[in-house]
Amino acid sequence: MKTKPLLDGPDAHKREIAYPAYPLDEALKVADAVSELGGARSAVPKSLLAKHMKYAETGPSFFQRVAAAKSFKIIDGWGSYLLTEAAKRYFFHTSETEKQAALVNFLTGPAVFEAIIKRFDGSKLPTNEMLGNVLHNEGNVPATWKDRVAALFVRSAQFAGVIDASGFLTYDATKQAIAGHGNGQTAKGQSTENLEAPPAEETPMSRYKRVAGKLNVAPKVFTHTEIDKSTGEHRIVLVETPQDMTQSSWELLNYYVQSLKPKQQTE
Predict the structure, then answer these.
(1) d(CA 134, CA 4)
(2) Residues 73-107: pLDDT tens digits?
């Protein structure tokens, strides 16, 4: 069966510029420099940006970093550079959710990265070697670059917080959780600040049952797998938490964890 190429249709002509030479966190350093030089309001000349970042204006390190920032759609321009609207929301955010939403959106800037997300979102990413082969065979990434581009995607996705502890790509789920967390509402449309008062006597488990489901939870996941030596059964511990843990959320999680503490076995 013939496999559909990663890049198809209107993006096919962009293959030669479809991926960055540096990861998202390095691209943001370029945009940060543009921001410091006033790039939110007026274009910053390339020569000034290179001097500010202490790179040779005509050197490959500077050129490739600027190209990466453009590939992620964090800056725009030729010869002089401005922050994009998405970058302005990131650097001049009015809430942490606005900043996180902008960060996640940057990940789909490079055409190949967007194609990887469409292909693997919601499933476990293959190894870097296998992902590199997919990029080479279906995305026209040169063999000499395929493994590096695969590693750049994984590093960028981890930086954006869309790969969980089990290696699953959670792009759409993360975006939905950020949107839900940002509106400050529960599933019933009630503010999380107006939860009912706790009863006079409350156990950790009863508090968890009372409050759980009323706080928005982002897919930041901790997992641990162990084997029961007596039965050989696999047991999985999975904990989801908000990306930016509040004091009330931490207290809720702490109550719940305490309720799970195993009873001490006596001889």
Answers:
(1) 11
(2) 999 999 999 999 999 999 999 989 999 999 999 99
The one-letter amino acid code at 166 reads S
On the 0-12 / 13-18 / 19+ scale of CB atoms within 10 A, 146 is buried
* Residue 124: strand pairing partners: 168
Q: Are 72 and 57 in contact (CB under 8 A)?
A: no
Task: Look at the alpha carbons of 172, 9, 17, 137 in this order and tell me if their dihedral is positive or negative.
Answer: positive
The set of residues, in sequence order, having a beta carbon less than 8 Å from that of 184 and lying 6+ positions away, is 191, 192, 193
Report residue 260 as tokens.
Answer: 């799970």
Q: Are strands 80-83 and 220-227 parallel, antiparallel or unpaired?
A: unpaired
Pairwise CA distance, residues 121 & 63, whole Å: 31
Largest separation between any pair of C-alpha atoms in the chain = 76
Q: How far apart are CA 39 and CA 175, in angstroms?
A: 27
SS3 191: strand
Question: Nearest to residue 150, comparing CAs of 124, 127, 174?
Answer: 127
* Interacting residues of 121 by C-beta distance below 8 A, sequence separation 6+: 169, 170, 171, 172
User: What does the CA dihedral 63, 66, 67, 70 come to, rounded to 10 degrees?
Assistant: -160
Structure token digits, residue 77: 């321009």
Amino acid occupying residue 253: L
Q: Is the pTM of this model over 0.85?
A: no
What length is written for the chain? 267
Q: Which of 186, 261, 258, 194 is nearest to 217 (CA)?
A: 186
**Of the candidate ranges 72-76, 105-109, 233-237, the one whose mean pLDDT is the lowest:** 233-237
Which one, of 12, 190, 178, 48, lies nearest residue 100 by Cα?
A: 178
DSSP state letter for 185 = B
CA distances from 244 to 22, 125, 160, 169, 183 (A): 26, 25, 13, 19, 14
